[in-house]
UniProtKB/TrEMBL annotation:
This is GPN-loop GTPase. Residues 323-337 have a biased composition (Acidic residues). Pfam families: ATP_bind_1. It is found in: Cytoplasm; Nucleus. PANTHER family: GPN-LOOP GTPASE 1, XPA-BINDING PROTEIN 1-RELATED. Keywords: Cytoplasm, GTP-binding, Hydrolase, Nucleotide-binding, Phosphoprotein. CDD domains: GPN1 (cd17870). Its EC number is 3.6.5.-. GO terms for molecular function: GTP binding; GTPase activity. Binds to RNA polymerase II. Belongs to the GPN-loop GTPase family.
Amino acid sequence: MASSSALTSEGSKKKPVVIITIGMAGSGKTTFVQRINSYLNSLSPPSPPYKLNLDPAVINVPFDPNIDIRDTIDFKEVMKQYNLGPNGGILTALNLFATKFDQVLNLMEKRSDTVDYMILDTPGQIEIFTWSASGAIITDAVASSFPTVVAYIIDTPRTAAPATFMSNMLYACSILYKTKLPFILVFNKTDVTSPEPMLEWMRDFEEFQKALTSEGHRDADGEPTYMNSLMNSMSLVLDEFYKELKAVPVSSYTGAGIPEFFKAVEAARQEYETEYLPELARVTQERASDRKLAEKKEESLNRFMKDLSVDSKRSQFEKWSSVDEEVEEDDYDDDGEYIDRSEEKGPVPMIDIGKVRKPGTAGEHINWPKP
Ligand SMILES: Nc1nc2c(ncn2[C@@H]2O[C@H](COP(=O)(O)OP(=O)(O)OP(=O)(O)O)[C@@H](O)[C@H]2O)c(=O)[nH]1
Ligand SMILES: [Mg+2]
């Protein structure tokens, strides 16, 4: 049942928000989905989400998915049949699933009146979803039908070092620019490691510089190494990126931070409506006018080709008809017999030599070669 916050100003039901969980292998995506699922079920009134498992290789799913890729595709069979390794198998399974995604979207549309959230759990290997055609197809299809937000799950304990933090952020940055969707950085596993230093690095560029320096990226002369310079420059780029983002610390184990995560999701819904949707409409219109222009070009080209062929037919015809006219009076021979020219090939101008030789005609004085 839809909660009151899920109603539009006209009192009708708002579309559910789709949360796509993406993150490095083992960052806690599946556990996070399970945690938000139990949180939504514990609300009063409960708001059970619609859950999709897109990981074909997972053995145990702790939540009960409404749609499970494993029901339609046997990932081990895909590996066998296509002679693939585990990652190729997962990628091919996802590609096969994407070909039927219109049906999945129909099922989601059917349930959209009864749920407030739809959650997608993605495969462990992040690049399989983020850099594959099928990942893009699924993301674009969902985002063009529902308000959609990417929850980028960060393994906080494994991201505590400045270098790993930066590479994780660069990855997040690339996904943000690829999907252009509202983006939430979810610092998971905060029960193990506090994300505070990392949040400080995001707020204050100089703090990150300090952390880099204390890591000791200096050469024998005490000068920063090329690695340090590279990281310094990249951190400047990322500084811009951080301004676009909301970061929420959570623990999928204890449930800490989950209500804050849903506040960020509500803000992301607004962002989707004010920024993503108009951009989507603009791109769609641009594509439609590009298509119209291409159609118009093709149409005028076709017309031109048609005219050209009509012209060439006409000129052929005129050639023939002028010849006909020319020989009209010569269609009969001297004995009044009709000359059968059916064996003549093509519009070769025909001259009745016999006639021009006749005395008193135009060719009277011509010296015709004697046979
Ligand atoms: N301490 C702690 N451990 C967590 C938390 N969330 C997940 N884990 C553990 O992290 C490990 C990986 O969790 P998963 O939920 O399977 O991670 P995943 O990102 O779905 O993994 P793949 O799908 O294989 O990439 C498991 O051992 C979890 O128990 C958390 O908030 N705190
Ligand atoms: Mg998982």
